[in-house]
Amino acid sequence: MTSSRSMPRTTDEIREVFLKYFEGHDHLRMPAASLIPAGDPTLLLTNSGMAQFKAYFAGESTPPHPRLTTSQKSFRTTDIDEVGDATHLTLFEMLGNFSFGDYFKKEACEWSLDLMVNHLGFDRDRMYITIYNDDDEAEQVWLDLGVEPERIYRFGDEDNWWGPAGAEGPCGPCSELHYYRGSMDDVPALDDPIRQNGWGPNTHDDFLEVYNLVFTQFYRDIDGNDTPLPNKNIDTGMGLERAAAVLQDVSTLYDTDVFQPVISKVEEIAARVWGDDPGIDRAIGAIAEHARSASFLIGDGVVPGNTGRGYVLRRIIRRAMRFGLALGMESPFIGSIAEVAMDQMAGIYPELTDNRPFILRVLDIEEESFARAIAQGTRVLDGMFEYRDAHASVTETLDAAIAAGTTADGLTELLNENGFDAPEGDDSATVGSRAAFEAIKDLIGAAFVSGGDDLARQRVLNWTTMVSGTEAFLLYDTYGFPPELVREDALDRYMESTGESAPELARDGEVDLLLDREGFKEQMEGQRERGRASGNTFRGDVAARRVYESLGIDDTPFRGYDTLTVDTQIVGIIKDGDSAPEASEGDEIELILHETPFYAERGGQMGDAGSLTSDGVEVEITDTQNPYSHVNAHSALVSSGTIHVGDAVTATVNEERRERIRRNHTATHLVHSALRQVLGSHVRQTGSLVAPDRLRFDFTHVASMTPDEIRQVQDIVNDKIRENHDVNVEYTSYTEAIDRGALAFFGDKYEADVRTIQID
Questions:
Q1: Which one of 287, 525, 707, 738 counts the least CB within 10 Å of its CB?
Q2: What is the pLDDT of residues 227-272, one digit of tens each?
Q3: Which burial class, exposed, middle or buried, applies to 469 when counting CB atoms under 10 A from its CB (0-12, 13-18, 19+)?
């Protein structure tokens, strides 16, 4: 597969070689960000190396250095159902080098080739390049570096274009470095037409994308027009696990050194052997991967839930359990597998050590919860088959429906006349019986509408032994009961009731005797479509932002740490959703000031209020927000007079209100610290509200706090307040602040230099 020039390395060595290489090219090594994105409500989980640098790429913040490099733990949810095969992971490490208006294509391409061949040991003869269709500049760079023309392939938007992330924004072409893992004897001749149609990167399974270089050089507007950016950026990514698979000359990601100890632990518990059977391998791989990824999510403060990040975590834990149960593993088992995974990664990610007791506790509780769900799902399944046992006359009912030409509305009445009814009640067995009634009604209705289609009719006839797609989806979606276990249960019941041997699985175009897999797939696809539709609404208000941008204002300097009163100037007025030259008494508007003492809402702290005054003019400021970049917008009511863009005004913060907010803000720091003392260092802030009259602190924990724990936190906070400690403010770098133990607050965006609070 790989050539004799390959230099197998451990995953830790590959990571360090990459980072040191770019440090040698004047890149600042940055720590990995949390999997919970800070200050980015559009992102569920950190999914790439560039995610933590989005504000730098957008020009909203200044990076600590124009060149950065990281190894970023990343999580992607798009392929959860594929995990367990040779190439898919939910959690992976993305190695990256980044440039913000500094170097561009020439250096990015030159360094990537040098790194891969001369420092990591990739075989130069197995490397191929892809570029965007019309990116002649990138092609020339590669040619100048000695890459042969026949190794360069052009592709379109789907393969070699990145962005924009939303309706508009930065975007650009990309160039990918692919590695050929097949036999060199199978490489076609240069004049073989297959090179342009079926053999090569992106088209043949023997090619693996290893390194992606994104050239962010355009801004695409709302109409789809691309304009060159004044500062061009570089965003790259090399999947660490993929690189390790190539350099260690193994066929799957699970055969790499980072996964093998975890795989061995699963083998030990399951009493199965890795590599003997593809189906068993898939189950073992999925269990190992999900135990590892769950550890990272919990370590960063995610706890199981029914929405958002919590649902993702719950889904992967339960998917691992389902595979384990199918292998005959007895719960609980995920915690012991997760411990091995954490041992592999804790040297790089110390949060796995710091939060290990919490991680294991969460896993145990979720396994216990799922075991109860499986038990409840089994009772629902019992109800489904009890209903079937009592209603076996489906053939006669189907024939009666077709003969009567009944309408959909009349189908329920016809079923009732033939002894089928919908039982009432909320116990699990009754829920199952009611689902069975709805299933046979839907199946007969579908057969009637199809005019007696053979497959539709067969589904009705199989109903007495077959769990329908809608029933299987109910068991899966509500109770976490996997379709594989549903079929096994149906098989046991079939063999017990008939005395026959196990029927074969249905082939394509046939209806299975035990489980309507096609119907289940249709239900799952419907759920995905609903998810995609709801996800499309998760965007910012682009039109509103464009109004602010049209003012041409890049920054509102904040003076409110030093003074509550500033003589300033009105530089923008927004009225009724559009910019305006003036506003009069009674108008509700938004104002942009040349500089401001008003603190904008962020991190849960409410924005300042106060007033603007000048000769004959008084304006009430009711709120302050930060709609984009460094610009503050002040919600206002003109109490008297008329104001114009360009007017000089005096801006004054409501001092009493600000002081009450400040006290509650300081209290959130005290609460955060006290919670970590009482509950453990795993506690992470997930949200807050800091208002003049109250505060709310949202945090991660595995269970509700006990009265004693609440009392301990209250005592710690109240004792600190009574001691009346000094609150010291200091400015330092973000990295140094974190190294010294500072806690970053959820939802806040931090730049290279940060303001820290220390309570002595």
A1: 707
A2: 888 889 999 999 999 999 999 999 999 999 999 999 999 999 999 9
A3: buried
Distances (CA, A) of 579 to 182, 540, 565, 573, 592: 61, 19, 26, 6, 11
Grouping H, G, I as helix, E, B as strand and the rest as coil, residue 99 is strand
Write the burial class of residue 479 (CB in 10 Å: 0-12 exposed, 13-18 middle, 19+ buried): buried
Q: How far is CA 185 from the centre of its chain?
A: 41
Residue 357, classified by CB atoms within 10 Å of its CB into exposed (0-12), middle (13-18) or buried (19+), is exposed
Are 384 and 435 in contact, with CB atoms under 8 Å apart? Answer: yes
Q: What's residue 3's pLDDT?
A: 44
Distance CA(388)–CA(169), nearest Å, equals 57
3-state secondary structure of 98: strand
CA distance 105 to 312: 37
Strands (E), 347-477: none
Q: Using the CB atoms, write b or e for 282-304: b if 16+ within 10 Å.
A: bbbbbbbbbbbbbbbbbbbbbbb
Task: Tell me the one-letter amino acid at 362.
Answer: V
3-state SS, residue 643: strand
The 10s digit of each residue's pLDDT in 195-224 is 888 899 999 999 999 999 999 998 888 888
Contact 156, 132 (CB under 8 A): yes
Tokens of 480: 């976490």
Separation CA 516–CA 533 (nearest Å): 26
What is the bridge-based pairing of β-strands 28-29 and 67-75? parallel
CB burial string 111-133: b at 16+ within 10 A, e below: bbbebbeebbbbbeebbbbbbbe
Which residues lie closer than 8 Å to 410 by C-beta, 6 or more apart? 404
- Confidence (pTM): 0.73
Strand partners, 208: 179
What does R_g of the chain's alpha carbons equal in angstroms? 31
Q: How many residues are recorded in the chain?
A: 760
Tell me the HSE value of 163 on the side-chain side, using a 13 A CA sphere: 25
Among the listed residues 400, 401, 394, 500, the one whose alpha carbon sits nearest the alpha carbon of residue 437:
394
Report all structural domains of the chain as residue ranges with CATH numbers, in order of start. Answer: 11-249 (3.30.930.10), 259-374 (no CATH), 393-535 (no CATH), 542-653 (2.40.30.130), 659-759 (3.30.980.10)
3-state helix, strand, coil in the chain (%, to 5): 45, 20, 35
Buried b (16+ CB within 10 A) or exposed e, 534-556: eeeeeeeeeeeeebbeeeebeeb
Tens of pLDDT along 639-651?
Answer: 999 999 999 999 9
Residue 612 makes CB contacts below 8 A (sequence gap 6+) with: 570, 591, 618, 619, 621, 636, 643, 649, 650, 651, 652
- H or E stretch including 677? helix 655-679
Q: Nearest Cα to 346, choosing from 269, 248, 338, 52?
A: 338
